[in-house]
Amino acid sequence: MTDTANQRSIDTEKRLAAEAAAELVEAGMSVGLGTGSTVAYLLPALAHRRLDVCCVATSPATFGTARSLGLDVRPFTGIDHLDVAIDGADQVDPAGWLVKGGGGAQTREKIVAAAATRYVVIVSSNKMVESLAAPVPLELLAFGLDATLRALGDARVTDKPASPDKGVLAGYFGPIGDPGKLAEWLSAMPGVVEHGLFPPAMVSDILIGQGVHVHRRCPGD
Ligand code: 5RP
Asked: Domain with 9 in it: what CATH number?
C-alpha cells in the first residue's frame, strides 16, 4: 500500500469509529468531547444527529469546532458529572491501558474521562499495540521545572506551546515496563500536573476501526 493509500485507510478507520461512537449518544445526555483528528470526525457526526445534548470540550480547538457545528458546548464549570465522554488515543495495549496526550490535552482529557459514567475510546487499528512505547506525554508545572525534569530523569520539554492551563508540555522517555507502576510514580512526582497513561479501569469501550468495520472491546474482555 502506498503511504497515501495507507493514510486514507487510517482516516476511514478513524471516521468509522467516530461515527459509531456518535450513535451511542442519546438526547438529554451530557457529553465530554476529546481532542484530535479522530474526534474531528466525531464532531460533525454528533452535530448531524441534532440531539439535545450539552457538551464540554477538552481543548479550545474542540470547543471552537464543536460550537461552529452548532453543538451546545459549555465551559466545564457548574457541571459535576458527564454521561459519556468520547476521545481518541495514541496507543492502546492489550489490557486496555492508553497513552494519550499527542495533542497535549491529556490533563483536561483525563479530568473529563474521570467525570464520565461511560468513557468511549475511538481509534484506528494502527493504535493497537502489543506494549506501550515512550514517550508518555506529561504536563508539568512551570514553577521548579528544571528540578522536576531532573527528578524525572529521562524527560524533556516539547516544542509545543503551553497548555490552556499554562502547563509545560513534556515527554517521559524512560522505560514503561508495568504501566500501572509508572503511572503511580508519575502521579506521585511533585511538579507533574498530569501524565498521559490512562488505566483500563477508566475505559468503558474501545471502538476500533478496522478496514470497513468497527470492533468493540471492553478492557478486561
Ligand atoms: C490529544 C490526544 C488524542 O486523543 C490522541 O493524540 C489521538 O489523536 P488522533 O485522534 O489525532 O490520532 O490524546 O491530547
From this structure: 3.40.50.1360
